[in-house]
């Protein structure tokens, strides 16, 4: 009987412990499976991500071979005009001396401008990416066209209309070549302007980043003591020499004689 009672008590205790385990697990807060909250972090951005890179010249819209072809057409127009100028004979015209002299100066100026135009054209042919050479070539064509038009009108009136028409055709070819070169030169100028703007933005970004990085690291300015300046120069030395020993306050004071010794 005693053994049976002990067995019943043991079974009751075991069943009570098992029944209490779910309640205990429910009373405890469940373990959080999520990660702990993170604090705000400041990301460091590399300078390459902030500072824009300068743009490189982009002349893909115009093929270098096309530029070479345009410069060759310009050379053909110059050669044609110079060849036509050999057929002009103003000495046969019935003109006054003043009008003949004026036309001679215009003709000489036209030849000089054609020579200058060929010089700039040949340099641009060697360096087609040069904005300066392109601008000078464009300007040389622009300066040649009015002189050529004046010569063409005089030849049409004084020489013959056929020769004047040939001059007019060569002038039109020169003008068409200039207009064909204009988009290429505009693209070069635009690319250089973009590079200038990008470099200016890079400089501003570098200054901003440097100011932010050096904030709090620069020591405050320390006050300086007032120091009497010592002038050194030929004028100061001459003034001191002219003043003599009396200028020194130590030498101007009388020195006391030593007391007499007792016998």
Number of beta-strand segments: 0
Termini separation comes to: 145 Å
Profile the largest sheet. Answer: none
The named CATH superfamily of the domain at 64-181:
Alpha-catenin/vinculin-like
| CATH fold topology of the domain at 64-181 | Four Helix Bundle (Hemerythrin (Met), subunit A)
Multimeric organization: single chain
Fraction of residues in β-strands: under 5%
Instruction: Supply the CATH architecture of the domain at 64-181.
Output: Up-down Bundle
Overall geometry: elongated
Name the structural class: mainly alpha
Mean pLDDT: 75
| Residue runs with pLDDT of under 50 for 5 or more positions | 19-60
Count of DSSP-assigned helices: 8
* Helix and strand element order: HHHHHHHH
> Tell me, what is the CATH class of the domain at 64-181?
Mainly Alpha
What Rg do the Cα atoms give? 49 Å
Which range best describes the helical content: under 10%, 10-25%, 25-40%, 40-55%, 55-70% or over 70%?
55-70%
Molecular structure report:
There is one protein chain. This protein has helices at residues 2-27, 47-50, 64-85, 97-126, 131-158, 161-213, 234-243, 249-252. The chain has a domain at 64-181: Four Helix Bundle (Hemerythrin (Met), subunit A). The chain is built from eight helices and no strands. Helix 3 packs antiparallel against helix 4 (97-126), helix 3 (64-85) packs antiparallel against helix 6 and helix 5 packs antiparallel against helix 6 (161-213). The longest helix has 53 residues, at 161-213. It is mostly helical and 263 residues long.
């Amino acid at each position: 009987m005693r053994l049976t009672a002990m067995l019943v008590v043991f079974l009751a205790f075991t069943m009570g412990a098992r029944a209490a385990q779910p309640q205990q697990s429910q009373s405890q807060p469940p373990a959080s499976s999520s990660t702990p909250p993170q604090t705000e972090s400041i990301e460091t951005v590399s300078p390459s991500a902030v500072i824009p890179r300068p743009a490189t010249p982009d002349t893909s819209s115009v093929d270098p071979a096309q530029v070479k072809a345009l410069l060759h057409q310009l050379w053909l127009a110059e050669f044609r005009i110079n060849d036509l100028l050999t057929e002009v004979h103003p000495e046969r015209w019935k003109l006054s001396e003043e009008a003949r002299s004026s036309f001679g100066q215009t003709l000489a100026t036209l030849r000089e401008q054609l020579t200058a135009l060929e010089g700039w054209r040949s340099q641009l042919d060697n360096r087609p990416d040069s904005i300066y050479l392109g601008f000078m070539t464009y300007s040389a064509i622009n300066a040649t066209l009015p002189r050529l038009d004046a010569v063409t009108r005089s030849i049409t009136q004084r020489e013959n209309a056929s020769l004047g028409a040939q001059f007019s055709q060569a002038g039109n070819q020169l003008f068409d070549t200039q207009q064909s070169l204009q988009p290429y030169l505009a693209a070069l100028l635009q690319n250089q302007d973009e590079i200038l703007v990008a470099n200016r933005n890079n400089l501003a970004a570098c200054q901003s980043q440097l100011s932010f990085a050096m904030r709090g690291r620069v020591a405050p300015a320390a006050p300086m003591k007032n120091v009497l300046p010592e002038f050194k120069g030929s004028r100061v030395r001459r003034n001191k020499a002219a003043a003599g020993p009396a200028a020194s306050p130590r030498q101007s004071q009388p020195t006391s004689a030593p007391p007499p010794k007792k016998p």
